[in-house]
Amino acid sequence: MKSPMMVQLADLDPARELHAPGRPDDAALTAILDSPRSAVRIRRSPRPAVLAGAAAAAVVAVAGVATVWWPGATSAFASWTAVPTTLTAAETAERAASCDTHARTIVTGDDGPRVDQIAISPVLAEQRGEYTYVLLVGAGATGECLVTSQASGATDVVAGESVPAQLPAAPGPRELTTLKSGTASWSAGDTGDGALTSAFGRVGSDVESVALVLTSGERVEATVEDGWWAVWAPGEASLRSTAELTFTDGARAETDVVAR
User: Is the pLDDT of residue 87 over 70?
Assistant: First the structure.
């Protein structure tokens, strides 16, 4: 016997009068099959969608990580270079315009769980071939964003991630600290050309440049700007765990690149 609630729910079913699909006496199905049909042309955008603004706010993981990875994104990184191209402040702002500018975390309040947003803004950007990597930082959060520039001048987000993070104190004048080093979580699961490794952190005021070495043996220069450093390279776990620092007085030193 059905409960009164189930009977009421059944009365709300708009298809309650239809017979089981496929029966010869199903008049509704027969009418649909006998109706004229024509092909509908679907227009597809030639460019991948850009996740920004309100749309980006919808990408929230339970762990508080906002992650984006476009299936149609180019995975070869064939244009990547070991030495980055220096960008002006205007170019950095332009490339970063499509990046998500908030990290999100789930907190428990008096009314239950809620999503809090932490504002982040770009602190450096570096271009390697067709790709520009943007590092964003806020009070208790960091973000990474990889974009490409179109011929029209617009930028498309290829991948990005923003996470709550405890920022370390400023390092000593001749020191380097690492906030992250390893295969980018927004490319986790990909191997070969699809994966990429990134590392970033802070440097002291006497550090002029930072250089790392790929597992292949190739030397790669990081970008250093306003007390921050960052580098990325194609491939999974493609960076070795040490870096060479060059100071403003010309001296050099080697240090570990290990996130703490």
Answer: yes
* Among 207, 205, 198, residue whose Cα is nearest residue 178: 198
| Helix %, strand %, coil % of the chain (to 5) | 15, 40, 45
Confidence class of residue 226 from pLDDT cuts 50, 70 and 90? very high
Element counts in the chain: helices (H) and strands (E) = 4, 14
* DSSP state, residue 166: -
179-225 residue pLDDT tens: 999 887 666 554 444 678 899 999 999 999 999 999 989 999 999 99
111 contacts: CB under 8 Å, gap ≥ 6: none
CA distance 72 to 52: 17
Spatial contact of 54 and 172, defined as CB atoms under 8 Å apart: no
Tell me the whole-structure pTM to 2 decimals.
0.67
The angle formed by the CA atoms of residues 78, 79 and 83, to the nearest 5 degrees, is: 125
Task: Report how far residue 84's alpha carbon sits from residue 81's, in angstroms, rounded to the nearest whole number.
Answer: 7
3 state SS of 189: coil
